[in-house]
Write a structure and sequence with these properties.
This protein has about 800 residues and is of the alpha+beta class. The radius of gyration is 32 Å and the shape is globular.
Length: about 800
């Protein structure tokens, strides 16, 4: 053996070995159970950071773990390569986004390969390549045929300097994030995908995704936002025109407490009132400049102005004043709300500010009500008071009675509404997938023929910040109308990059297929993805759009089942001390706290980096980077390497029975613990278990038999291989094995042997014994807690766990409330 652990030489040799033998190639071997392990593909921003390393190493551990258990594993990699950052880099550096993107892909590919990831690189895709985005265009045309894709005018945030649409988060204090120019609210033609058609199945399917984190399912359910309520009509006669102001409410039981109505700045009544009121017109313009970010509405200052109009209460006939409110969005509901300040915090704040009446109409358990300050319980359900014939009715009865009376008067109906809105995919930007539409002066928008796909994006353009360069590129623009043959122009809007990432998981199954988007037979074999790994920041948009397009593809008969991802795992962030703020923050170039993997790999090796990023803590938790931790991981691997001496020195020795049994039991216990820990995605505790096995081997190195110590060592190498593949592969070879560790199989354990060693854990809830469970000695706190939760699940229903106390080998105690 080499006297010293030299990572550079070892890792280069191992990676060469794997590549030459195509060890990570996924085949169509139906004799083995498939396992599709996928990490969210990266944006090629320049260089990988430690967040990438953690994300992809977690996936790689599971992929290797499953492969060693005999599964047919698919672990691919690609690049989410379109998008605005490339255009900004092009403006800053004077290079085409294509060159910047492809150069970054080459760099990051090399970095990922240096980590020894078990990726089938033959399946690599990049969304900016024509052989990929051609199928974006083909799918768009199929959706257009079925009305799922459509064109209409939509209100957008427009930067008049960059001459582009801005996302809500790119508008800061009413100005463009890059130019600082005041943002305008413009209504322009855009293409949409009718995701609202799928609102019901998207919501219902969340209940059948047990492998998803509860918080992600809750976030998606809230975003879809199903609401059962009543559509209420407030009649009016304004300027000689009769009409009805429509308002949707989930609290029809509070209808008798309405003291005002508020409309969005874009509402027709606001427009009409502003024509004769310059001050109101200025306020309307101010409201229209704001981005339509719903999350900001809850916290921003509520402002309003009266229109001078009034509507009629549909049941009492009372005149109700109409205001324009900055907290009302035209894109939600009917663009109007009924103000019930006594029972809605937002309306309460508005009424107090402008001196509007506050009329209590709901009694909550007889509690005293005051208009002096808002109390959260004011919004709770109760019984109607001061509501005429509805007095004494509980919420459900009052809603039913009021809905029936409104329906009888032709001024209301029961209705289900959704918070979800159709997905606007048009972007007035260059570096994206061209929308396959031709604009003809005679025929209007005309789809491009399938035979003319892909509509190629020119890759040699350099944006200069003056808008989309496609609008000035004659060679791209000029074409003939497919219908009438007249001169026409191509659509210059490109697709939202979320379209690219909403079906890429299916393309990995057949990345080089030229005559179809998806090979249905192969997709049926591999889908759904068994494990999907990525940050919780993608819980809404990416994951919602991916689920939506998968359902569309299912309706087209192209994919199996209803959902693309069986199990979703959200890894936590790596933080480091910011050189700007001095605080722990997510790694970012702007914070000066990015730890690049290259230097660490060069100095300590990829295995050290892998071990450390996995050992930092539970992978779903946020963790802090420390240099001491890197050194600790490196010392651990040096110790693993040095165990070769222990095995060599003990060769041929029979050993003492007690020592042999201790090492043997520790080995089997470690196999079980590592298997269980990896199966629940906790490589950190798996590493801790292996450290304990090394300690046991060292403790009995002078007394245990050579065969027992060698067996323990070889078992350790097999267990450690998914985490530190290079060093384990090299030692395995040194020990005389010709085949790769990947083919050595996963070790098994003797359950009967371990059963003899088990201890009994008492499980308490608020100090009372509720169960006992058998466990292996030394079981880690999180594993003991998980086992204990299962045993006393019924005692935790409807309760909030505020504390868990673990006494090793004796007890797990839960403190709960509720």
């Amino acid at each position: 053996m080499q006297e010293r652990y030299e990572p550079a030489a070892i890792e280069a040799e191992a990676q060469k070995y794997w590549e030459e033998r195509r060890c990570f190639a996924a085949t169509e071997d139906r004799s083995r159970e498939k396992y599709y392990c996928l990490s969210m593909f990266p944006y090629p921003s320049g260089r990988c950071h430690m967040g990438h390393v953690r994300n992809y190493t977690i996936g790689d551990v599971l992929a290797r773990f499953m492969r060693m258990q005999g599964r047919n594993v698919l672990q691919p990699m690609g690049w989410d390569a379109f998008g605005l950052p490339a255009e900004n880099a092009a403006i800053a550096n004077g290079v085409p986004p294509a060159k910047w993107t492809y150069d970054n892909i080459a760099t990051m590919r090399g970095q990922l390969k240096s980590l020894g990831l078990a990726i089938d690189w033959r399946r690599e895709v990049a969304t900016c390549r024509p052989d990929y985005y051609r199928w974006n265009q083909w799918l768009f045309l199929r959706m257009l045929e079925r009305g799922i894709a459509y064109r209409k005018t939509g209100v957008v945030n427009w930067d008049p300097v960059d001459r582009t649409v801005l996302a809500n988060e790119q508008v800061i204090d009413g100005r463009g994030w890059r130019t600082g120019a005041p943002v305008e609210r413009r209504e322009i033609p855009m293409y949409y995908l009718a995701i609202t058609r799928y609102a019901e199945p998207l919501l219902e399917a969340l209940a059948h995704l047990p492998g998803w984190p509860d918080r992600v399912r809750t976030m998606q359910a809230n975003w879809i936002g199903r609401s059962e309520g009543v559509n209420v009509g407030f009649p009016y006669d304004i300027a000689g025109t009769r009409g009805v102001l429509r308002v949707f409410t989930t609290r029809a039981d509070t209808l008798m407490g309405v003291t005002f109505c508020a409309v969005a700045a874009e509402h027709p009544l606001a427009t009409l009132a502003a024509q004769a009121d310059p001050a109101l017109a200025a306020f309307v313009e101010e409201c229209q400049r704001r981005p339509a970010v719903e999350a900001e509405l809850a916290t921003q200052e509520k402002k309003g102005m009266p229109t001078g109009f009034s509507v009629r209460h549909p049941l009492s006939g009372e005149a109700i004043p109409v205001w324009v409110g900055n907290y009302v969005l035209m894109s939600y509901g009917e663009g109007a709300v009924m103000g019930v300040p006594a029972h809605d915090e937002r309306d309460f704040e508005f009424a107090k500010k402008y001196g509007l009446p506050i009329r209590r109409v709901i009694d909550v358990d007889g509690r005293p009500y005051s208009t002096q300050a808002w109390e959260p319980w004011y919004a709770e359900l109760g019984r109607c008071v001061d509501s005429g014939r509805y007095d004494g009715m509980a919420t459900a009865a009052a809603v039913a009675a009021i809905a029936a009376d409104l329906a009888g008067a032709g001024l209301g109906e029961r209705r289900t509404v959704w918070r979800l809105r159709d997905w606007g995919i048009s972007r007035q930007r260059y570096w994206g997938c061209p929308i396959p539409i031709i604009q003809c002066a005679h025929c209007g928008p005309v789809p491009v023929a399938d035979s003319d796909l892909p509509v190629l994006l020119p890759e040699d353009l350099v944006p200069d910040g003056s808008g989309n360069p496609l609008t000035k590129h004659a060679a791209f623009l000029a074409c003939r109308c497919p219908r009438c043959g007249a001169a026409a122009q191509r659509e210059t809007d490109t697709m939202d990059t979320f379209v690219d990432s909403s079906w890429y998981y299916a393309r990995f199954v057949n990345p080089h297929m030229h005559d179809a988007m998806i090979d249905a037979a192969r997709v049926a074999r591999w889908m759904p993805v068994d494990l999907y790994i990525g940050g919780v920041e993608h819980a809404i948009l990416h994951l919602m759009y991916a689920r939506f397009l998968y359902k569309v593809l299912g309706d087209f008969g192209m994919v199996p089942g209803d959902e693309p991802f069986a199990v979703l795992f959200n890894q936590g962030m790596i933080t480091a001390k910011s050189k700007v703020s001095g605080k722990l923050e997510k790694m970012s170039k702007s914070k000066g706290n990015v730890i690049a993997p290259d230097a660490l790999i060069s100095r300590y090796g990829a295995d050290t980096e892998r071990v450390y990023t996995l050992f930092m803590g539970p992978p779903e938790k946020e963790v802090e980077w420390t240099d001491d931790g890197v050194m600790g991981a490196h010392r651990f691997l040096q110790r693993v390497w040095g165990l070769q001496d222990l095995v060599a020195e003990s060769a041929g020795r029979d050993g003492e029975p007690a020592a042999n049994e201790s090492v043997l039991v520790a080995t089997h216990r470690t196999v079980k613990r590592v298997h269980d820990d990896l199966a629940r995605y906790h490589p950190n505790t798996a590493i801790a278990a292996m450290m304990e096995l090394i300690n046991t081997m060292a403790e009995h190195q002078a007394t245990a038999a050579g065969t027992v110590l060698r067996g323990a060592y070889e078992t350790l190498l097999r267990l450690l291989h998914p985490i530190a593949p290079h060093v384990t592969e090299e030692v395995w070879r040194i020990l005389g094995h010709e085949a790769s560790l990947l083919r050595a199989g996963w070790p098994s354990f003797d359950a009967a042997l371990l059963a003899k060693q088990q201890v009994t854990l008492a499980v308490q809830v608020n100090g009372k014994l509720r169960a006992t469970i058998a466990a292996e000695p030394g079981l880690a706190a999180d594993a003991a807690g998980a086992a204990a939760r299962e045993a006393i699940a019924k005692w935790l229903e409807g309760k909030r766990v505020v504390k868990v106390v673990h006494v090793p080998d004796r007890m797990v105690s839960f403190v709960v409330k509720g």
